[in-house]
Amino acid sequence: MKFLDLPDDLIAEILRWLDEDSVYTCSLVNKGLRAYLHHDLEFEYRYRLAKHQLVDTCHGRLTYEQRISLLKHFTWMWWSDVGNPKESYEAYRIEGRCIAYELVAGVFAKTDGSSLTMQWLPSLFTPARQITYSRRKIGFPIKDFALDPTQDLITLIEADLLPNVLPRGREIIIHIKRLSTYAPHPMAKEPTIRFMVPYHPQGNYPQGVTIQLAGDLLSIFFSSPPGLPQLLLWDWKRNAIILTVENSMTPGLHLPTGTHSFEILSPRSYALLSTTNSGSIHVYNIDYPRNPIIPPFCVARLMMPSLLPGLQLASLLSHTGPFLGQPRRDGIFTTSPDARVFVITARFLNTPRTHATIFVNGAAFAPYVQGTRVVMPMEEPSHGKVAILDFNLVRDPIAERSSNFDLFTEDIRHILPPRTQAFLVNSRCTSWMIDEDYILGLDTEGAFDEQIRSLEVYSMYHCPEA
């Protein structure tokens, strides 16, 4: 008996044991299975999700027919070839000076160093709303922050107004709060995390601070004094130190020589990027809490391509989307964690090509660490166009190319460009951000003391009202 000769309800029960990628594969290898999967709404929906590297978060709130219809509309809104510029769905007034801002899981947050403003973007299941916590409610000056709306979490680094050089250690305080109420977070054992930056004759004020969240992992990477990076990792729920390490050559733990930046790869792995020689990426695994006394250990050192003679690598940075502690619940689908893209930016000296941007699929780190849309400025600046690069769409075949980009001693094989399109907008926004469901334009003024006037939202679910 052939598989497709089985009763339909039995076939369905068997196929439900498959994940979305396997369902998609079945549709490619057998015409009969493809016809069956497209005839059944549940499996057609799962097939379409896998094709765009999405996962379902509907939790039964809509029928499969409704989900398929919304998914088709969602895709059309991203990639419709309508020549007319798109109109923003809504514009929100978010005024004032800005020293830091974030867009995570449908929440835009910004601070001027004293107050904190958060704008929840409209979704299928939740309306838009805005909250501002005043300087009086915050209770301290803000240096930087990180948030995770899926855990109702925001962590804020308290700034101090003391001199850069102190004759003693400098205490740094991180506050752990609920995003929605600013109350101490109930999952945190302690409301604050405190650590000391030791005295140094060149100064002990943290500079170039990067704070990140990934589930229960909280990281902070900074330099103090300038040129001497330090890294600290905590379990913010238990207030337990996982790692504290500085760039020194003393025996024991130290950062790799030339460490320039830090990036979380998963809730239990991270990378340190070094500018030594042609550059390298050091991948570390965290065996916490299974072995809390064993520090993170390096499992791989990935070398960047060798540079042409005379060229020098000046900086090496990495950026990726936020890591969420819980699945989003404000829509019917979300990007699969397996589709993550890391954007690595390198800056070079002694060459006309001073910058290079490398897009790395998260699967490249998968062997060590147990694609996504990216919004980019146009090559020729334009207030009416935004370039979208889509790494999510599964396409076959993929064309490979090779080039040394006038930077490297050997040709590098790559599979760029991804699917690209110019997104036409009626806007003069100067900065652009992207979320799974939106493109956001920031209307700003000023260079060194940036002021935000408004936030324009281009929704892929909604159509602007007439």
Automatic annotation (TrEMBL):
F-box domain location: 1-46
The organism's place on the tree of life at top rank: Eukaryota
Family matches, as InterPro entries: F-box-like_dom_sf, F-box_dom
PROSITE patterns per record: FBOX (PS50181)
The name this protein goes by in its record: F-box domain-containing protein
